[in-house]
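User: Predict the structure for this protein chain, please.
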Amino acid sequence: MNSEETFTLQNEFLQIRILPAFGGKISSLRSARTGEEFLLPPLHRYRQVSRTAGFHEGDLGGFDECLPSVSICESTSDEPPVPDHGDLWRSKWDIDSYDRPILCPGPCV
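Assistant: Here is the predicted structure, written as structure tokens:
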């Protein structure tokens, strides 16, 4: 899987574009009927960031996974602190398996 690979899911109402190399980022969420985009486009180019990067160092667009927390959390009970927007948005995701192609039918914009 490379940094340019995208997966697109679509039904009669929505089209969702996902970037696994960028933490499973949802880069586009648009109406399949009107083409209207609901997410902010990236303010900075997509690029890999370090495991300790702050969220402001990312692209600042789309929809990111915010697990385990959207806010900074201090260390508690032998657990490490949680950074701003959690840990997962900085990590490359791999697709292990899927039962059928998840590409949209017909032309995908």
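The first strand starts at residue 7 and ends at 10.
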